[in-house]
Amino acid sequence: MAAGVFAAGLVVMAGIYAYTRPTEITIAVGPPSSEDAKLVQTAAQILRRDRAAIRLKVITTQDPAEAAQAFDNGKADVAVVRSDQVEKATGHAIAILHRNAAILVAPGGSAIASVSDLRGKTVGLVRHSPANERLLDTILQQYEVPGHEVTRAGLNLDDVQTAVRDGRVDAVLVVGSVTGTLVPATVASVAAAGLSSPVFIPIHEADAIAQRTPAYDSVQIVRGSFGGTPPKPSDSVPTIAAVYRIVAQARLADQLVTDLTRRLYEMRPDLASAVPQAARIEAPDTEKGARVSVHPGAAAYLDGDEETFLDRYGDWFYIIAMVMGGVASAFAALAGRWRSRGHEQALRLEQLLRIMREARMGQDRATLDDLEQQADEVFAQTLAVASQEQIDTSRLAAFSLALEQVRHAIAERRRVLGTGDPAVAPVAFAPVRAAGE
Predict the structure, then answer these.
(1) Are 195 and 331 contained in the same domain?
(2) How large is the C-alpha radius of gyration of the chain?
(3) From CA 54, how far away is CA 264, in angstroms rounded?
(4) Which of 303, 309, 371, 404 would suit a FRET pair with 325, their CA atoms being 20 to 30 Å apart?
(5) 370 to each of 45, 253, 367, 415, how far by Cα in Å?
(6) Looking at the structure, do residues 339 and 354 belong to the same domain, yes or no?
(7) Who wins on pLDDT, 53 or 358?
């Protein structure tokens, strides 16, 4: 009984330890110097500071493409990926971090006014990458401009102003957050290289591109986004954007993703104090038929359908109650059986004591033979029990002593009956005579 209680206690303690132990989630993000990486690192620090049930193990990659590859290979549970970099169907969105707009800008006084005017020109790509190459190709394809008719030149931010001023590039493509640092700095460099306000090249068919290529969204660069007098741009400019999302593996438990999603949105103010871009974190569309698949765990939080504690563990409580009830019944049955066996052993001992008493008063050999047969039967019953189960040592010793006394009593009575001596000889007391009689 004590062993069962101890085992049950160990099970309960193990369950409590497993429930309270923080769950570590591996997240991939890159490049190391990006605001996305800083945001994720800050989130990991906040979770450690708050002793949250979920912790983040950060894998820093060279770029979003490598983060997506780590996610595809199963090395990361969660990743920050760019929408136009292919990840497997196992990835489901948790949140939208930001949209990186494609800004095509030419120096003031340029004759370039539309995408079609880029034919035969050189476009400088700030932070040149295969993803940005594909984005430019997507734009050119919409306007039926062959990609090979547009020369591309990779640029660092520090090279933009010189390259534009020297005529080495006719326009500049920069992909980034309008409220970040890269895009405004690029626009300022192009403006400084020209004689007047830069020319923003609109992508009027952005909606059509987004419809045909779900990897991109259509966005508007609103008037005056980059300041200045006159404002830059002087009017709203349509364009396309690559979306940066946090995605989770489909294999992750719904409740785990629900907890992660809730924590992410709850700590958004703390994140924004370190990374202002965090204030722009938004929820993905959870409607059926949305272009982006949302993880069921994230959708449960975003739609207000989180499971309560009882919803989550009610079935387990019911199962545990049934199991514990069964265990208690089994212990009760065993205890009853043990008590029954102890009672049976006590009865057999009493039978021996009765036989011993009757043997001492037996009047003939037939009675003694019957008593001896009864003792043999009790002995046989005890041997049968002893061969199937363990008998308490103290009871076995008492039984052996009683059996020995019974056999001794029967043998002694046989001897007395055989010599004709009475069972109990009377004691004669001689009268005491007075002195002098």
Answers:
(1) no
(2) 46
(3) 11
(4) 309
(5) 90, 76, 5, 16
(6) yes
(7) 53
Q: Mark whether 252 and 280 lie in a shared domain.
A: yes
Q: Which amino acid is at 135?
A: L
The answer to whether residues 81 and 97 touch, using CB atoms and an 8 Å cutoff, is no
The string of DSSP codes covering 332-387 is: HHHHHHHHHHHHHHHHHHHHHHHHHHHHHT--SHHHHHHHHHHHHHHHHHHHHHHH
CA distances from 126 to 34, 80, 130, 149, 217 (A): 15, 21, 12, 19, 20
Say whether pLDDT at 308 is over 60: no
* Tokens read off for 341: 């066996």
> Among 105-114, 175-184, 334-343, where is mean pLDDT lowest?
334-343
For tokens 């690192």, the residue is 41
Closest CA to 364 of 326, 416, 322, 435: 416
* Residue 262 included in any domain: yes
Give SS3 for 88: coil
Q: What is the mean pLDDT of the chain?
A: 83
Q: For residue 218, give the CATH number of its domain.
A: 3.40.190.10
**Co-location of 110 and 205 in the same domain:** yes
Q: How many CB atoms lie within 10 A of CB 185?
A: 16
Q: Judge if 272 and 360 occupy the same domain.
A: no
How many other β-carbons are positioned within 10 Å of the β-carbon of residue 276? 13
Q: Take residue 123 and report the two structure tokens written for it.
A: 């476009």
Q: How far is CA 246 from each of CA 28, 37, 97, 98, 281, rounded to the nearest angstrom?
A: 10, 12, 7, 10, 10
Nearest to 206 by CA among 117, 138, 131: 138
Strands 171-176 and 122-126: parallel
User: Rounded to 5 degrees, what angle do the CA atoms 393, 398, 401 make?
Assistant: 125
The residue segments making up the domain with residue 330 are 312-419
Confidence of residue 422 (pLDDT cuts 50, 70, 90): very low
Would residue 67 count as lying in a domain?
no
| pLDDT tens, residue by residue, 135-170 | 999 999 999 999 999 999 999 999 999 999 999 999
Question: For the chain, what is the total number of helices (H) and then of strands (E)?
Answer: 13, 10
Instruction: Give Cβ neighbours of residue 265 (< 8 Å, ≥ 6 apart).
Output: 95, 281, 283, 301
Q: Are residues 144 and 177 in the same domain?
A: yes
| Co-location of 248 and 127 in the same domain | yes
Our count of domains for the chain comes to 2
